[in-house]
Each structure stands twice: as C-alpha cells, then as structure tokens.
Amino acid sequence: MNENLSLIPRPVSVKTTGSFFRSPVLPVPEGDTAFRNEIETFKEQTTSCTNRRDAQAENGKKITLVTDKSLGVEAYVLEINPQALILKAASPAGAYHGLQSIRELVLSSRGETGIVLPCAEIVDYPRFPWRGFMLDCSRYFYRVEFIKKIIDALSLHHINVFHWHLTDDQGWRLPVQKYPLLTEIGSRRLDYRSKAGYSGGFYSREEIRGIVDYAASRHVEIVPEVDLPGHTSSVLAAYPGLGCTGGPYRVEDRFGIFEEVLCAGNDGIFDLAEAVFDTLAELFPSPWVHIGGDEVRFNRWDACPKCKQRIEEAGLTSSRELQSWITVKFARMLSERGKTAIGWDEILEDSERYRLPEDAAVMSWRGREGGLRASRLGHRVVMSPNTEGCYFDYRHYKDPEEPGRLQVSTVYQCYNMDPAGPELTEDEVPLILGGQGNLWSELIYAGKIAEYMIFPRLCALAEALWTPRAGKNFTDFTERLPVHRERLDGLGLLQYRGPLG
Fold it and tell me: Where are the alpha helices (DSSP H) in 157-222?
C-alpha cells in the first residue's frame, strides 16, 4: 500500500506516520448521534469484519466520530493512530465519505491476524458537487438487487448521484396510476434472448421507494429520467392517440433513433406529462428531474396538421422550434411541483425564441460544446462527453473481441476528463456542477456484463470528479489500482483487466 494508502479517489492530503493500527477485528464505530444512520450503514457494509460484537470492549480500540463545523459539507478529516480511528465531519455526508475511506482500507487489509492499517492523517473534500453515474434500465431491465449493489459501489467511490434512466423506445419502467397501459403494454418488448419471446418489466412504487431509501442511506441522490418527447415508442404503443399518425406502434425491439415521437400538437401529451411528473414528484425527493430531450426527429411534426397548427399558434417558424416550446412547457410544469429540469444538450438547440428557464440545467453528452454554450448562457452544466471516456457502453479499447459499441472509452480518458477545463471563464466555472459516466444498455443484457463495463472506468472517473486537479496523476492512479481491484473483487464486482490507455 503506497503513501496514499491506495485510496480511490485519491484524498486531498495524506500524511503517514510510519506506525500501524492493529486490531483482531474492526472496532464498532461510535460517537456523535448526528451520525447514527451513517454508523449503522457502515456496520451493515462491514458485517464480515465486525462479526464479534464484543470487539470494542475486548481490545479497547475505537472508531470515534466527532462533529467539526469548521469543515465543508462533504469534507472529512480522518486520523488513524495506533489506538483509535478518529473521524471528524461537519455533516452526515462528510461522515459517510470518511467511513467509506475506512471501508476501503479495511477491504484491503484483512488478514489472519486481523486488521492492520497504516497510521495517517487524511484531509479530504470533493472538487465538484455532482459526481454522477447513469444506468439505462429501459433497454434491459435490471433487478432491484443489482441496482442496490451498484449504488453501494458508487458510494464507496464518493459518487453521489445515481441518474436512473427509466423510459425509452424499448421499455417504460415507471408505474403511473392514471396511465396503467404504460407498464401493462409499454414495459415489454420482443426479445429473442428470452424463452418467453419477450423481455421487460417495471418497478413497483414500493420497489422505487426502497431503492430511493437505500440510496439515501448511502448519500446517493437518485435523479430520475423520463425521456420526452422523443424515444417514446413505448408510450405510443400503449397510447397510440398521442402520436402524429395514430399508429400502429410497437415497443421497439430494435436499437437506434426512430421517427415516432409524441405529437406536439396534441394537448393530451401534456396531460400525460402532468401525471408522470406528479408520480416523479411523489416518489423521488431529488430537486432534479431529467426530461431527456435528445435525438428528436422532426419528420412526423413536419407532416402533421396538428403540429403545423401549433407552430402557427405559438408564433414559431419551424418544427425544430417545437422542441424548445415543449421543453419550456415541461420545465415550467416541473417548477410548479418544486422540481428543476435537466436535459441532454439538444434542449439548447433552436431555443432563441423560447429560451430555457434560467434554472434549467444542461447535461453535455455530444462532446463538451453543449456544456460550454450552456454555461455562457448562464445555465448550470453537468459534463458527460462521449468523446472523453464518459460512455461506459463503449469498448474499453480497440479490439474486435472486446464487448461494447460504437467507439472506445479508455480508463485513461475517464481519468483525464475535466468538467471545468481551461476554456471556461472565471464566471462560467461555478456553473459547472460536475460530471457523470453513462452506461447505455443496448448490448448490456446482464448485470455481470454491466459490471465489466463499469469497472474500473468508474474508479477513474470518480477521481476525476473528486480529487483536486493538482492532486491527479494517472501513473499514481495505476499504482493504486491493483490494491483497489482486490477491494472490488471482495465485493463480488466483475471488472475489466486489459490495457488502460
């Protein structure tokens, strides 16, 4: 274990003393009652290390949590001395991050004689407030247990946003009481891999609440995405009257971009959005709702009498401006529910006439350009460029035998992605919330394949989003990675082990 204790992401500061903390088992944490929930979660996560409940009384060693209001919201200070671990934090979030660093050390230090940790003082805090990961559960349906496993792994790496992609052409996963056919029809599609001839499913309200609560216990915020007005074949298959042609439609079993979109001239699509947004507001406490807005084709709107009438009534000049008109309407509907809209960078296109509300945020995926433009217009931005390693469904490196699609996203690219690059001005930098990695699931039909695509790219991206720019060093990261791989192995996470650059 090197001088940085092989922690990933790399802390802001680590000072080792040369001595060691030794214990036959991991002492039970105790301390400020403000951190009670974090302590209980840590106990759950480290059950195999704390199976002797009398450990603290037996060896007299402790993990003590102390409130220190001088620290930042997510910051922590961890002192490891021969007799105790002392963790200071100003908030439960900071305490949780500190406990996860202890968890990392424990995962790689268990031996026949118990736990041995290098004595050190660690000072740590994040560079960006939005450190995200998106999982697409619409192309392939992932079980609740798998989602919880991934959320727990995210939190180990101080990733604090789980962007949950719940709807697309190939499946609708969100139950909406006023529109039951969305899940009865829209959640299933043809699938040659399945013995039944179809695949799919949806999450019950109870399952969603359980996942939200599980994530909250790990200080991970869930941001739901319902993709509108494009990528809606699953909606149209259930409610064909919401399309421009009336159908017939089907839940797509192909992957790509399709002409079928919600009819911009049909007021019924806003009744649907009202019900969907009400459901999201009820089930998800996050202030953010992702509305998609990407890859909308305009062919149907160009030929649709209702859409043409809408263009005339709204004072627009083309079908392309309809998307901006709809996006603004969706954003205002969410604002009425206390939510803030975020969308893919297409929501900026043709928005000169209908400008996005000032509080709406943009997620830049087609390179960095959308994010740069959004920041210059005063919008908050999450950088997730597919050109800089953020697309985990791409291959790890260029090899015909390597799983993945379209392009290549290397670990090296992930590590060097910088949401706030030098092209930003001093006024624009504060608008960059952070960054995110995305796993689209067109080819990722099983959880184990998903794990292989996620790790260790997520480890690299986590460091890109947490560690100060001056503290980043890819060579150092590669030297810490072998120890960290053992931790991932211990958690039962499959990982890619080929070339990193």
Answer: 181-184, 205-217
The string over 472-488, giving b where at least 16 C-beta atoms fall within 10 Å of a residue's C-beta and e elsewhere, is beeebbbebbebbbebb
Listed in sequence order, the residues at least 6 apart from 479 whose beta carbon sits closer than 8 Å to its beta carbon are 2
Tell me the average pLDDT across 199-228. Answer: 98
Catalytic annotation on 157? no
Q: How far is CA 461 from CA 296, 342, 439, 457, 468, in A?
A: 29, 21, 13, 6, 13
| Known active-site residue 484 | no
Our CA dihedral for 225, 228, 232, 235, rounded to 10 degrees, sits at: 80
Alpha-carbon span 46 to 63, nearest angstrom: 13
* 64 CB-contact burial (10 Å; exposed 0-12 / middle 13-18 / buried 19+): middle
The whole-angstrom separation of Cα 108 and Cα 198 is 42
Q: Are 402 and 464 in contact (CB under 8 A)?
A: no
CATH code of 13-124, in short, is 3.30.379.10
Q: Is 168 a catalytic residue?
A: yes
Q: Rounded to whole angstroms, what are the CA distances from 221 to 93, 224, 434?
A: 11, 10, 14
Q: Among residues 157, 231, 396, 484, which one is catalytic?
A: 231
Q: Is 292 helix (H, G, I), strand (E, B) or coil?
A: strand
Beta strand 110-111 pairing with 114-124: antiparallel
**Scanning the structure block, which residue is given the tokens 């991932």?**
488
pLDDT confidence of residue 193: 81
Annotate 468-497 with three-state secondary structure.
Answer: CHHHCCHHHHHHHHHHHHHHHHHCCCCCCC
| 74, 104, 168, 227: the active-site residue | 168
| Amino acid in the structure at residue 379 | H
* 114-149 pLDDT tens trace: 899 999 999 999 999 999 999 999 999 999 999 999
**Whole-number pLDDT of residue 2:** 52
Q: Give CA–CA dist 238/183, Å, rounded.
A: 8
Written as one letter, the residue type at 365 is W
The mean pLDDT value of the chain amounts to 95
Q: Which of 274, 294, 295, 359 is catalytic?
A: 295
- The residue type found at 286 is S
Q: Residue 25 and residue 433: Cα distance in Å, rounded?
A: 40
Pinpoint the alpha helices (H) of 117-180.
144-156
Dist CA 345 CA 189 (whole Å): 28
Length of the chain: 501
